TrEMBL record:
The record marks H183, R244 as: Transition state stabilizer. It holds the Pfam family Acetate_kinase. The gene is ackA. It comes from Buchnera aphidicola (Thelaxes californica). ATP binds at K17, H211, L212, G213, N214, G215, G334, I335, G336, E337, N338. Mg(2+) binds at N10, E388. This is Acetate kinase.
Length: 403
């Protein structure tokens, strides 16, 4: 007999992650992901009750729409016993703009706010809304129980000196151009887990959280709240990412436009989809593939070295925000969890700050099922395995419980 559960949808630029999580136990009744959407060899894998994995490879390149239809009509419709336990649907949404400051029901007003923020997250918000549309259609009896959990909400604690840009103030007051941040759901989960592992109350915890995947960001957390973060108005600013440039001199855009005669739309496409690791090595944004050729391919080595340099520079800068007490540095996300090479290169640059890596622990963290990768002399360094879905499920239940 199953308890009440929450369906969680996490729609990315090339994937749809889904899970049905039992509320009281946090047990996953069903979970999986649709990967490589828009690319060759798109596939979906899923598990029920954590038993044998099911998998389907699509013959043709699929869209997000096809992916959602397969999820709802070919997976969830076949698992009625589980689907009947769902009492709410939680959606990870990247950008809430300046209007949304907490997790909210996705009614007409709040959906309009999400649409208004599309200009800040053009790759993500439309896809997030597509998931909302399909969920409301398929679970029509739960139409009023769809909840948006936003990546920008965790960063609402930033002070003006952290979120304003040094441009005429009217662009903020009239157009709301400011730093919003992203990956807030992940950074909040890392904070909560670190608090438990270190046995430090959240309100006393000072740490730096590094969410490193195809999208990458770093957040300074002081006394349990976000006080600075690397992503800005959009998820383009900050660290080197899979296909996004991160920080650049803004004048590069002027140079491309005036001297290279590139259209603004072409420049935007370059900075968002053709830069980062892909732009540096010229072949792939897959960090594992780049790592495999790190020792033999100079462009691969250059790509990872630049990635780690930018990351170490941000960690150094954020250390100054801790008021003299830094409790931990944490890595999460696909690259953060899996790349021992990235962690080694980055931490080796930070000995002046008191970070020292244990190379054996760093290389065997999965086998040992441990969190720590530092030496005895070091400030704690943790690897936190991402479970954003659990955070989304808890937020969703909290919102619908208060209706």
């Amino acid at each position: 007999m199953f308890q009440k559960s929450i369906l969680v949808l996490n729609c990315g630029s090339s994937s749809i992650k889904f899970s049905i999580i039992e509320h009281h136990s946090s047990r996953k009744l069903l979970y999986g992901s649709i990967e490589s959407i828009g690319l060759q060899n798109s596939s979906v894998t899923w598990k029920i009750y954590n038993l044998c994995e099911k998998r389907k490879i699509f013959k043709n390149i699929i869209t997000h729409e096809i992916g959602f239809k397969f999820l709802f009509h070919s997976i969830l419709s076949q698992e009625q016993e589980i689907s009947n336990t769902i009492i709410g649907i939680g959606h990870r949404i990247v950008h809430g703009g300046d209007k949304i400051t907490s997790s909210v029901l996705l009614n007409e007003v709040n959906i309009k706010y999400v649409k208004d923020a599309i200009c800040f997250a053009p790759l993500h918000n439309p896809l997030n809304l597509l998931g909302v549309m399909f969920a409301k259609q398929f679970f029509s009896h739960l139409s009023d129980y769809n909840v948006g959990v936003f990546d920008t909400v965790f960063h609402q604690t930033l002070q003006k000196e952290k979120y304003l840009y040094a441009i005429p103030y009217q662009f903020y007051s009239k157009n709301k151009i400011r730093r919003y941040g992203a990956h807030g759901i992940s950074h909040q989960f890392v904070r909560d887990q670190s608090s438990k592992i270190l046995n430090i109350p959240i309100c006393n915890l000072n740490m730096i959280s590094c969410h490193l995947g195809n999208g990458a960001s770093i957040t300074a957390i002081r006394n349990g709240v976000s006080v600075d973060t690397s992503m800005g108005l959009t998820p383009l600013e900050g660290l080197v990412m899979g296909t996004r440039s991160g920080d650049i001199d803004p004048a590069i855009i002027f140079f491309m436009y005036h001297n290279l005669n590139l259209k603004i739309s072409d420049i935007e496409n370059i900075l968002i989809k053709k830069s980062g690791l892909l732009g540096l090595n010229g072949e792939t944004s897959d960090f594992q593939k780049i790592t495999d050729s790190y020792a033999t391919n100079k462009q691969s080595k250059l790509s990872i070295d630049i990635f780690c340099h930018r990351l170490a520079k941000y960690i150094s800068g954020y250390s100054s925000l801790m008021n003299g007490k830094l409790d931990a540095l944490a890595f999460t996300g696909g690259i953060g969890e899996n790349s021992s090479l990235m962690r080694k290169i980055t931490i080796d640059k930070l000995s002046l700050l008191g970070f020292f890596i244990d190379y054996v622990k760093n290389d065997t963290i999965y086998k040992k099922k441990q969190y720590f990768i530092h030496t005895k002399e070091s400030i704690p360094i943790l690897v936190i395995f991402a479970q954003e879905e659990e955070s989304i499920a808890k937020e969703t239940f909290s919102v619908i419980h208060n209706i």
